[in-house]
Fold:
Amino acid sequence: MTLRPLTTALLDRLGPDLSDGTLRETAPAYLAEPRGMWQGRAGAVLAPRDTAEVARIVRFAAAERVGIVPWGGGTGLVGGQVMPDGAAPIVLSLERMRAIRRVWPDENVLVAEAGAILSDVQDAAREAGRLFPLSLASEGSARIGGLLSTNAGGVNVLRWGNARDLCLGIEAVMPDGAVLHGLRRLRKDNTGYDIRNLLIGAEGTLGVITAAALRLFPRPASRGVAMLVVPSPEAAIDLFHRADALGSLSAFELISGQGMRFLVEGGFDIRQPFAAIPEWAVLLEYGLTRGEDAPARLEALFEDASGAGLVSDGVLASSEAQAAALWAVREHIPLANRAVGSIASNDISLPIGEIPGFLRDCGARLAAMADIRINAFGHLGDGNLHYNLFPAPGRTKHDYADRAEALREIVNEDVAARDGSFSAEHGVGRLKVATLERYGDPARLQAMRAIKAALDPLGIMNPGAVLRAAGASD
Amino acid sequence: MTLRPLTTALLDRLGPDLSDGTLRETAPAYLAEPRGMWQGRAGAVLAPRDTAEVARIVRFAAAERVGIVPWGGGTGLVGGQVMPDGAAPIVLSLERMRAIRRVWPDENVLVAEAGAILSDVQDAAREAGRLFPLSLASEGSARIGGLLSTNAGGVNVLRWGNARDLCLGIEAVMPDGAVLHGLRRLRKDNTGYDIRNLLIGAEGTLGVITAAALRLFPRPASRGVAMLVVPSPEAAIDLFHRADALGSLSAFELISGQGMRFLVEGGFDIRQPFAAIPEWAVLLEYGLTRGEDAPARLEALFEDASGAGLVSDGVLASSEAQAAALWAVREHIPLANRAVGSIASNDISLPIGEIPGFLRDCGARLAAMADIRINAFGHLGDGNLHYNLFPAPGRTKHDYADRAEALREIVNEDVAARDGSFSAEHGVGRLKVATLERYGDPARLQAMRAIKAALDPLGIMNPGAVLRAAGASD
Structure:
């Protein structure tokens, strides 16, 4: 089944069926992705006004065998939002469908359209006196449809789960143009196969999510934030278990000395929390209910952990401003990484007990191959590390071009050997299709391909993402 | 595609490939289900020793076009475990695969085989100092494979979620006999379609779950249990929101005066908590961490709710024995229901704010049709009610045989009109196939059928459960 390009002639045929404003200018942003690895193609950028128009466009694409690349905020890091080769597709932007359709504060439910920006959803929840806990660096531009389609993670997964755990129901347009009406706001609903979770994380390859019923939570009455210096990753994990046992831990992030030094190297105006940059630190946050005492909990943890030799220094935030300053350190590390320029970025997860061994052994294997710097940081409480490789001082990533793939393979192999995942929160996109083919379970891959062929027999939905497009070769 | 019966001749061919003890006597228990609505059929009952043997049996069944009915603890309430008509299938019991393969206490993960009994898994977690929170009436006989295949609920969903939320990874045999190795114990793993959640809740129609990596949690250090008298369902819901806002609420169950009167009527030796049986009460439980004070939390709630006119009386358990006595009231209500004999049982969920209107309006519609008694009880905090209809005093369910279906339809219609679900936690099985066809979203049903055909093209996996078997008519 070969797809056809969206030609001007085809677009002229579709035109009369489109609402005013649906046909957008093909601005460069629609064809780019943050890492600059690919340049996308588009026959047209269409931004439908409502679900019915999404369905019309999908039906047209199915009838004409034209590919569709769903487009949210464009923040994905694995190329799921750009199609660099093949017949020019429709880029289907959900940007005009950004309504918060309704909030039920008592039920802790909010229904948002796929184009709603995450920070707008957070705000709507806040205005209703509730919390929508999904939080990540790109929350000012990432959209709900993309966040669900990639099952986004972020800093609050520890307590509230991944995006899929925050979704009670979806509305979606299936690859044949049928609208799936599944905006359930129920906590329990055992009436057949879990199509919701199948579309969540499918990266737009099985349909287009157009709206979602999202879970809200009570807002923590107060938060307790601390950054603590730990002597080793082992100590960080021991500390994590103690911190978690106290309850209401919502974030537990690992920060490496390398990351803090990159902040200096990159010239970021970030106040370093410690007089001397430590080799390892953790940033943790409690979100506490009324009547619970944040400083008391942090002090109890600090005393317990200090007594056990797990913590040598620490800053316990005593104001919102201090808490924000500590989080600023964590939040600027990805920016510093970009300023330095990584050779290879890895978004891995491991059983948490495997992390110290991984850091030791994989670090040694990489060091034996190349003179590099490693910044390992991120969501330690979830077993999720961003494990990024950088050039030695005075060199650039281009000096490593011949070894980048081999370095990446060392990481992937070590992760696989430890029952980990080569993609914890970023997804597969186009970047990791071959990695999935290599490391994915064969029976699972076979099931995925059968499902793709069953739900999207023409292969029009985000061709080449997650699974190799039918007929394509490596 | 017509299935063939498992004849003696076919069984003789399979025999040499089976381990000692795999061929079981076809005891009546394998062909029954708790409500006595169906009598199952079996060409043979096979209880394989390990996953490889499950795969051999499934491959044989696929080659010979023989149906397979996966069998766990046999506790399902919708007939998913019995095939009353069609070609005699293999009943595939997981009872010999009951190992707890491994526990990682620090990671809060336990891997159990599908035949492990829930209470054994709870015990294994307890021995590791952890909690496996899934808890329901049949926990002494229900098995992990069945609990996952039906996405079981129970009394702790409020805090810890349904069975699917407690599962990090599965091992399964697919309908072609391929073994899916997915016993991941990761909190984040975005590497393609969510096949795990597709098999969870598929009621054995897409493959056989053979083992699962399950999530454990810290054990609450103390629990606070109370039964409170409320003037109305509205008050119960208001109370729920206040109770939930205090944090760590793990159960919130509605109990009706009708249920308490059934305990008396059925002659159950259960101590009534109140001098006079109230029309409505709730049973709630907090699971608190070290340092938190259960009596203080319950008293704060009681004072707050009393002041708001939401609670008129209450018993706050001051010992484990008292807590157990309060729970015994709740746990005996289903037994009392069976003693009375229901006309129709409904396992429904609703957006929680719809519950008072549903109880009022649906109750009135039913009363207009027949002289019945209604016992509405269950997991109010999840929006999940067991809404069961009983004969008037002095009559039996047989007196209502001509109206049972119409009464059930009134309930289903009212639930659907309020965006609820006709099956909250029990599943579809064979009982509710037609109900799913009637009330299910058409696009979702179409996707379900496409997936069934793609993964199980021969239709051998639990034929007739969830979806009508290919070629079968109503």
Summary: The first strand of chain A starts at residue 23 and ends at 24. Chain A touches chain B through 88 residues (CB under 8 Å). The domain at 222-417 of chain A is CATH 3.30.70.2190 (Alpha-Beta Plaits). The mean pLDDT of chain A is 96.
